Write a sequence for this structure.
């Protein structure tokens, strides 16, 4: 592959290859000296047109640990504000000969469009409601390490599925790896067409959580609700917020995940999110750096082979 635009383009063996390579970087990242030179001499530009904490920080750290020259474009201060288009901005940066472009954009499909115009590898860091492939890969690595496998697991994805690129990428990845997926949430936030991905849909969380191995919580993405139905947070927490009582319906060793940013007391109880016996939220962040190192190494290798 030349780019990493979505999980939809990856095969089972592509996914396994990224996760296997990422394991090496989990070990490297736990050492005091964390440096490798596999991206030495290469230029990585991060273009984030939407807010980010985890994804932007981990892509920057990943590039630096691999020896790339990393530049974070301050999009708020860029000439986009003067009316320059996304493509003109990308072409301008392309003329500076970057090797890796990491792009987050609020519009679904914007990153694919940009990838068609530039000469370097493009990594999708989240486009609208479409895909967030490195998030699904880091979630997969977290699950594989916690459960010892990434197949034949019962996995619940709960909450605002409709607006979530994280849910969409996870559905595709976990489906490709032959897991059973349940989507849990109010019908307004879990579109029925997701059964096309092979998922089962539940609006009763107490039913949906029964005997699952993994519980993945999602934030209510009010910024994408376009003034439509926004649930009352209190009512929502009562019905769909994960707390110890609801988690007790899952398997006794079920893990709790959240891609972040989380809203404590809305979709998840804060004490449960911090419970290191059940929650793997911090491991997800740790795996994010390793997975992004692996993805960038593989794309740089493909670029070198194609040259
Ligand atoms: N999970 C995730 O994408 O977080 P950020 O929006 O902080 O990058």
């Amino acid at each position: 592959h030349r780019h990493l635009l979505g999980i939809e383009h990856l095969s089972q063996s592509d996914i396994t290859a990224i996760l296997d390579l990422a394991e090496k970087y989990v070990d490297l990242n736990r050492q005091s000296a964390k440096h490798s030179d596999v991206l030495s001499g290469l230029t990585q530009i991060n273009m984030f047109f939407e807010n980010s904490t985890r994804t932007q920080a981990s892509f920057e750290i990943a590039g630096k640990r691999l020896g790339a020259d990393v530049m974070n474009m301050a999009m708020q201060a860029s000439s986009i504000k003067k009316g320059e288009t996304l493509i003109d901005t990308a072409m301008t940066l392309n003329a500076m000969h970057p090797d890796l472009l990491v792009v987050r954009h609020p519009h679904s499909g914007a990153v694919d469009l940009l990838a068609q115009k530039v000469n370097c590898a493009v990594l999708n860091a989240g486009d609208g409601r479409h895909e967030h492939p490195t998030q699904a890969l880091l979630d997969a690595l977290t699950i594989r390490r916690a459960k010892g496998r990434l197949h034949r697991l019962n996995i619940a994805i709960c909450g605002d599925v409709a607006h979530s690129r994280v849910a969409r990428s996870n559905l595709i990845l976990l489906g490709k790896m032959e897991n059973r997926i349940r989507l849990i949430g109010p019908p307004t936030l879990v579109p029925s067409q997701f059964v096309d991905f092979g998922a089962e849909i539940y609006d009763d969380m107490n039913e949906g959580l029964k005997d699952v191995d993994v519980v993945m919580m999602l934030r209510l993405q009010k910024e994408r609700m376009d003034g439509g139905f926004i649930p009352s947070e209190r009512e929502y927490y009562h019905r769909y917020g994960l707390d110890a009582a609801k988690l007790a319906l899952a398997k006794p060793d079920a893990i709790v995940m959240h891609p972040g940013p989380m809203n404590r007391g809305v979709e998840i109880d804060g004490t449960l999110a911090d419970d290191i016996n059940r929650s793997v939220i911090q491991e997800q962040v740790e795996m994010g750096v390793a997975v992004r190192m692996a993805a960038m190494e593989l794309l740089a290798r493909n670029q070198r082979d194609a040259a």
About this structure: Residues 52-55, 126, 135, 259-261 surround phosphoric acid mono(formamide)ester (CB under 6 Å). The CA atoms of residues 160 and 220 lie 5 Å apart. The chain is about 40% helix and 15% strand.
